[in-house]
Amino acid sequence: SHQMTKVAQRLALLFLPDAMAEWRGSGVAMGFFEGDVSAAGGSSTKSSSTDYRPLLENMEVVERIADHLLLSLCSQDTTVRWSAAKGLGRVASHLPQFFAEDVVSGVLEICTRSGQNSSTSEHSWHGACLALAELARKGVILSPSQNPNSRLADAVDAILKALSFDVRKGSTSVGAQVRDAASYVCWAFARNFPAAEVAIFAPRISKHLINLALFDREVNCRRAASAAFQEFVGRIPDVFSGGIEIVGMADYFTLGDRSRAYLSISQKVAALESGYYLKSMMKELMEEKLAHWDPDIRQYAALAIANLSRKNPEHVTVNVLPRLAYLAVQATTHSERHGATIGLAEVLTQFACSDSWPPEIELLSKICSVPGELRSRGLFKGRGSNEIVTGALRLIESLVGTQSISEPFVLEFTSILEFVFFSSSDEQILESASVTFGAMVKFVLVNHSANEKLVREALAKVQSRSVQNCLGPIILIGKSGPLVSVPLAKSITVALLNTINDAFYSPEARVHGVVALGDIFHALTRRDRSYFEIAESEFSEILRCLLQASADYTTNDRGDIGSVIREAAMEVLSSLVSRWVNVSAVQIGEFGTEILGAILRQCCEKIDRTRRVAFVNLNRIHTDFKGFQICEVQCRSVEALLDEASFSNDPYGASLYLITDDNLQTSILQGLVSSAGGIGPQASSVTDLLVKGLSECDDDQVIQIAYVLLSFISERAHEKRLLQPTLVVLQFLLTDVGFFSGLRGLGRCQRLTSLSHRVF
To answer: In whole angstroms, what is the distance from residue 266 CA to residue 262 CA?
Structure first.
């Protein structure tokens, strides 16, 4: 235990001289409180005469305590390992030289015995590193000039291994604390050894510390390596190449951002001293980080390799591209394959812009065959396939962007995209496929024979209603605007209109259907202005469909899933309306009030994200009111709502100005009721605002509002998301507030009475 370790080391000090041993290294930076006060209270300074008679009489006891401390270095408890390392430093600094050398050998033997093949070795390596740091601080590890049998070289070899210690364990890895402790050892070496003794090891230590400071996954390890490097530069300034410049650009704060360390600082460091650190950095990225277990690290490594490769295009052609092309297919793990594939894609993107492009035909053909090889080996299915597929899609996108691929590979890439779109339901993969297909459309497929065939197959799958989640075909259709003819575009529009408001399809498919509808329309109108005239007959149907989607309150076990459909509908609705009004002579006409009401309804929504989307889109169409048939009062109310400060502080209060507007009343009340009758901190405040707004209405207006509220019950009886809040608000107004009680006997409630009979 922790306490037993502390007692053992204090007990050992009872059998040792009070003064520290005089043979210890003098060091270059002994701390102000360097010495330890022994258990007997002796002096901490070196003595010219050391009495080892108590030690000789109790040698066996001290040896057993030293063995106990060495074993404690391998404990699973961090506090025990730390205490044991401190104890070994204290005890060894009072021992005779031959005995202390045995202690150092025992610590190094732990490193040799543990290896780097199992996660259990993490504790041993961590304890050994802490012990080496303490022994160095106490001057127990001597330099070769002080002792011909010095183990300094062995200690450096062990520390260099510890600086790259990373053992896979399940879906993660262990070793961060080992690398952190190894940086501490380097810091201790910098404080204890003069430049002449460290110079021989400086190139290896500096390169390992730079790799750790720039590319480690853990921020504490990056900062620890930076501190060790800074200590070397500060105390031994002439040993590390480019030290002063690196300390200025890679400090505690700049290395806190992983992206900045990988993509910005690494380029600056690689440019120093004629690329002194470049080779070791590339080796670390290629051999270690591209095969890292964390996908984010692999992505950063791929981008970093691409950035560093710009400094030496010839090296890219001869070494980087062939090596990555080989690993992408022949690697033994999914992580290594994925890293090599995305590394290949990022390097190609950068390399294609250089004067050395294109490479040899044989190499380019080998690279182009990688996606097909991955698919033929069955790596697009099974465990880890998602990463392989996304990597292959990114590689295809990069290759297509170079505009250097031959016809057979165009057909092969089209086949791969068809497979992904028609077989996958993973949104992340389909998003990658969407980007890749967009590149294919832009650079390859516009005039290709295979373009419309692929779109027609996707359209057939959507029209068949064979599966609920037909995300892939819908996304493909949305990106195919530049490929389709006007007759095919009409068929696509009809199919998407049927999909968007069909409850048979999943909410995700309907969201992407809305987005695809907007993308197709924009692509066609950008390509041919005359399409506006052709689409006039269909535009009203598109608007009606989007207006219906903007009122979708579908709920499932994930909650109000209809909110994402409403948000997508608002985005597409505002973009279509803005483009139509600005380009076409046709006016929105009677749809103006409905569109405005649909967006204003969501401005009163209880979900913050949805309200924000509604506000952004209301702001977008605000400049296009010239095509809307709305009155000046409505314009002023909307302008008040568009005041961002007012919206952020009180998004509901500004909507009360429109509660009495006959055209917008239903939409505003729907939004307010869904918030007031819901669950959340805003419910009570919205209810108070609603009561305040009603109190300012005359009797006829109150009757009209009551009629609208009751109509919600009959019209939205199948939508629990709206029905329940409406009932809660009505109960509050009728019982708790008694708001409608003053209308009894006024003879104005005939419409209300007839509606009540119909509802109940």
So the answer is: 6
